[in-house]
Amino acid sequence: MPERITALDLEPAELSDGTRAYFAKCEEKLGLVPNVLKAYAFDEKKLRAFTDMYNDLMLGESGLSKLEREMIAVAVSSINHCYYCLTAHGAAVRQLSGDPALGEMMVMNWRAAELSGKQRAMLEFAVKLTEQPDKMVEADRTTLRDAGFSDRDVWDIASTAAFFNMSNRLAAAIDMRPNPEYHAMAR
Amino acid sequence: MPERITALDLEPAELSDGTRAYFAKCEEKLGLVPNVLKAYAFDEKKLRAFTDMYNDLMLGESGLSKLEREMIAVAVSSINHCYYCLTAHGAAVRQLSGDPALGEMMVMNWRAAELSGKQRAMLEFAVKLTEQPDKMVEADRTTLRDAGFSDRDVWDIASTAAFFNMSNRLAAAIDMRPNPEYHAMAR
Amino acid sequence: MPERITALDLEPAELSDGTRAYFAKCEEKLGLVPNVLKAYAFDEKKLRAFTDMYNDLMLGESGLSKLEREMIAVAVSSINHCYYCLTAHGAAVRQLSGDPALGEMMVMNWRAAELSGKQRAMLEFAVKLTEQPDKMVEADRTTLRDAGFSDRDVWDIASTAAFFNMSNRLAAAIDMRPNPEYHAMAR
Amino acid sequence: MPERITALDLEPAELSDGTRAYFAKCEEKLGLVPNVLKAYAFDEKKLRAFTDMYNDLMLGESGLSKLEREMIAVAVSSINHCYYCLTAHGAAVRQLSGDPALGEMMVMNWRAAELSGKQRAMLEFAVKLTEQPDKMVEADRTTLRDAGFSDRDVWDIASTAAFFNMSNRLAAAIDMRPNPEYHAMAR
Amino acid sequence: MPERITALDLEPAELSDGTRAYFAKCEEKLGLVPNVLKAYAFDEKKLRAFTDMYNDLMLGESGLSKLEREMIAVAVSSINHCYYCLTAHGAAVRQLSGDPALGEMMVMNWRAAELSGKQRAMLEFAVKLTEQPDKMVEADRTTLRDAGFSDRDVWDIASTAAFFNMSNRLAAAIDMRPNPEYHAMAR
Amino acid sequence: MPERITALDLEPAELSDGTRAYFAKCEEKLGLVPNVLKAYAFDEKKLRAFTDMYNDLMLGESGLSKLEREMIAVAVSSINHCYYCLTAHGAAVRQLSGDPALGEMMVMNWRAAELSGKQRAMLEFAVKLTEQPDKMVEADRTTLRDAGFSDRDVWDIASTAAFFNMSNRLAAAIDMRPNPEYHAMAR
After folding, report:
1. Which of C141, C166, C175 sits opposite D165 (nearest CB)?
2. Cβ contact F166:E166 at 8 Å
3. ipTM of the predicted structure?
4. In a mutagenesis test of the C interface, which of A129, A134, A136 is the best target, namely the one with the most C β-carbons within 10 Å?
5. DSSP letter at C148?
6. CA pair distance B103, E92, nearest whole angstrom
7. Listed residue (D101, C72, F153) closest to E9, CA to CA
8. Which residues contact E3 (CB under 8 A, 6 or more apart)?
9. % of chain B residues with pLDDT over 70
10. Which domains does chain D have, with CATH numbers?
């Protein structure tokens, strides 16, 4: 019997050929189908909207490296104590950086990591946006620009941090469980 | 000279015919193109991912009425003090309910509204998910089920509340400005 | 049957001629008797103490304009999510400024408004005093003085912010309901 | 040279005969003129509005004993860490109760005191109103009524707690200093 | 019948000669055996571990004076609202400083005290460490060094603040009651 | 060159034979000398006080299993985001439980773990004590007793949670770095 993926009992949808192919590709490239995709699969429209946004954000063109985007994901998820995202994206930081300790630091407290001033500014912005979105002001954007980020980069930092504030909350609300394989990856 | 829509200086993209048509439809149906769409229009891929998710969530099939989804949107945005979303979705609550005071209550303090126990449970869940995502437990889902919500409804409450925790933060991070027309709508 | 004004069932007092005259004057000048006055009217001594303090603070001599005092009232009430005060004083900001959007910004998030540095300093002080009264230090007063405020202005900013921290709490504690007329005023 | 009473440099007003008489009465009855009165004395209108409200609230007719009102004052001031009010009203609790330890508990942590369930409910209400005014709901009033309080008592608890949320903030904003005599009183 | 010292009903241990002698010495030097020692006395190993750490920290060699260490103890305990520690260490501040008002300020709000910039930096560090341990960064240590503290002093400030974050919590968890004698000491 | 262990530059002490032997025993039993011991080794008195308390608490007689004490350690450290303690004690949970995922859950969000009601009550108590020590009341102890804990167990839960509130803060204050070996242990 497969382990449950969320706390909700949702009617599974018949998967379309497109989704099947997408899942097969995940299996091939990642060695697993991330549980978040299976959680969304009860409704293919929701699944597609989620993956379109996620893939653009985390894998698309950006002035931020993929590792930097994953660092934002994990630093935000650490504040929100999201078990799913810390597990899955903590593994991604370990993998992309080749530095297991860096992944742990992002999960536990990113301030423990030795980062460039630019990356530190990036994470400070993501943290403030997570904790005190009502207090964001022009000075926060100026700090990013002064650290060397373009306005497009500011958008990417903001939308990545914002996305995980969504994702963390959906996962928390439905008790989404990460694939157990993540725990041992890239240690 | 058009008023600025965000604090970021992003290269505007050439709009595709599809986007042009979509904006024309907005103009026709709503009397305006919501600024959030214009803000995203520097990159059509991002725009489409956002509108796909948004339209499914707020306009698609659901056990929650459109008004209830807008109520969640505004109650969440009130916690996060998001000027953009409170303006745009406060107007939506006023319009959909035909009750201007209800829109104001959602913006100011939803606890002031006389709601059914079921709607109150819905908003309590959305608020806890916004303020303390790390503290969500099975008892929170049970409370929703006891109030009469299905597991699919729980998903919809959770994903709507989660979405506005994203949207509020993107808007805050880039100082997104609502269309001024919203202020006078449905007063 | 008149709508209830608070959640408390208090014996109404026989109104004195003075109070009757005062209410008639309100009706004449404002088009309504603010519900807060009716709420206090069960005890004329309390009513008079309240109005004496309120009128001196909001209408008396001050280096702050009446609009500025109303801005403080609304910014403080926004933090405390006071439905009564946001409704009544949000209307006052719209009226005094002739700028409906400014009223909305004060209600939703004053940081969205384009204010002078001096007014921004004034509201920052009021916000800190509301959120972290235990952390006020000389540097906070110095910031106000450097922004151009006199020591008497500091008193007025402080006592206005302090007053609404009282008023917000009384309204919240007894579920005080604003006059419905406020919603449509000066839109 | 007299010790300064606040951090503000305000033009002292010529005291009227009425105020002089009032201060003389304080001196006679309390052995001192409370510094809060001297702080307000730069403007007799403000002074009178303050004392009218204060005297009605703390000394007027009420279902709450004077000691209970002082307990609320100190419990609220403890949350706000108000040096002035904790000093002056801590002394009042010691005096009125004849129990120095009770005064200390109110200052430090009222939960350490052995109180009746009714008084505990009273202070819990005052604390919630202080910390989370936005979260007050009918259930909070019901708890007070169930503990034996009338609706008028609810008003008195609410307005006392609200008043000290004002007073604490004015004192904090201007660094108001308590009369040194309070420290040794009723130890 | 002796007053209870904690809310727990723990089997009292037979006191060893060493502990008896230690308690006699306390009685002789302090005029009382601090209740915290009696609370730990159900297990001599725990008692000794506690007193060894405490005595080294508060009475051992340090660049901080004993008064400064007590000031940290009380400022931390004020944040945590620890009745036991505020009572016992508030008395210590009054005694060591010979300034009753200083003890009261530490209990109520240390920011009210007129301290040197160096002592202010010391307490700011202790407060941040108490309230936001996750946010400590190199800049916080630099501020202490710039204020004139050595690295060893930083250790002592940190470990004293940390110790009372432990002690406050044990006392709160078991409702530890201070010896009543403290209240009247050094007033 | 050895990696630095803390941000402080403290004169290393000449290690006594006893300490040398103790470190050798650590090396033998754990495969490493925990960096916290090396951090304290600049002063053997402090080192001994720390290890005496630590060893009694985490390894001594108790109604709590060693794993349960480590679970408290990690759940508390997760709230405080302590990189050192999460790394070292997260490894201990993995080792003692033989369940790597359990260690991760304690680090990320203990609420994700499937625990007995008794263990859940234990961690809820530890969390409240960490986050709101000022709000602990008899009802919190009663909940533990109702879950099956003795008064002595309550002491142990309280003192373990309290200890890590100290330890987390010392580590944060001086940027204590965990031995890198912990990361790969018991994965």
Report:
1. C166
2. yes
3. 0.97
4. A134
5. T
6. 56
7. F153
8. E177, E180
9. 99
10. 17-59 (1.20.5.810), 66-184 (1.20.1290.10)
- Phi/psi for F119 (5° steps) reads -65, -35
Which of F166, A102, F7 minimizes the C-alpha distance to E139? F7
Alpha-carbon distances, residue E8 vs E32, E165, F140 (angstroms): 22, 21, 12
Distance CA E10, CA E24 (A): 22
Residues A154 and A121: their CA atoms lie apart, in Å, by: 11
Token representation of residue D63: 């279902």
What does the alpha-carbon distance between residue E87 and residue E95 come to, in Å, rounded to a whole number?
12
Mean pLDDT of E152-161: 98
Is the pTM of the predicted complex or chain greater than 0.95?
A: yes
Chain B: partners with 3+ C-beta pairs within 8 Å:
A, C, D, F
Nearest-angstrom CA–CA distance, F149 and F143: 9
pLDDT in tens, C25-72: 999 999 999 999 999 999 999 999 999 999 999 999 999 999 999 999
| A39 close contact with B: CB closer than 8 A | no
Joined tokens for residue C6: 């608070």
Instruction: Work out the number of other CB atoms within 10 angstroms of the CB of residue C99.
Output: 15
Cβ–Cβ below 8 Å for F108 and A104: no
DSSP annotation of F176:
-
Tokens standing for F66? 């060693």
Query: Are the beta carbons of F136 and D109 separated by less than 8 Å?
Result: no
Residue C48 and residue C140 in contact, taking contact as beta carbons nearer than 8 Å:
no
Residue with tokens 């190199």: E138
Distance CA E69, CA E158 (A): 10
Residue whose structure tokens are 């100082």: B175
Neighbour tally for E117: CB within 10 Å: 10
User: Given CA atoms D159, D163, D166, D169 in this order, what sign does their dihedral have?
Assistant: negative
Answer yes or no: is pLDDT of F2 > 80: no
pLDDT above 50 (res E1): no
Q: What are the backbone dihedrals phi and psi of residue A162, each rounded to the nearest 5 degrees, phi first?
A: -65, -45
D154 reaches C (C-beta below 8 A): yes
- Tell me, what amino acid is at A87? T
- Report the pLDDT value the prediction gives residue D120, as an integer from 0 to 100: 98
Report the largest interatomic distance among the alpha carbons of chain D, rounded to a whole angstrom.
54
Q: Is the pLDDT of residue D1 over 60?
A: no
Which residues have a Cβ under 8 Å from the Cβ of D157 and sit 6 or more positions away? C173, D64, D72, D122, D125, D126, D144, D149
Closest CA to D82 of C135, C76, C156, F132: C135
pLDDT over 80 (residue B68): yes
Contact F59, E45 (CB under 8 A): no
> Residue D175 is which amino acid?
D
Phi, psi dihedral angles at A82 (to 5 degrees) = -90, 110
User: Would you call F7 an interface residue with chain E, using a CB distance cutoff of 8 Å?
Assistant: yes
Task: List, for residues E15-42, the tens digit of each pLDDT value.
Answer: 999 999 999 999 999 999 999 999 999 9
Enter the DSSP assignment of D177. -
Q: Phi then psi for E3, rounded to 5 degrees?
A: -65, 145
Distance of alpha carbon E150 from alpha carbon E141, whole angstroms: 10
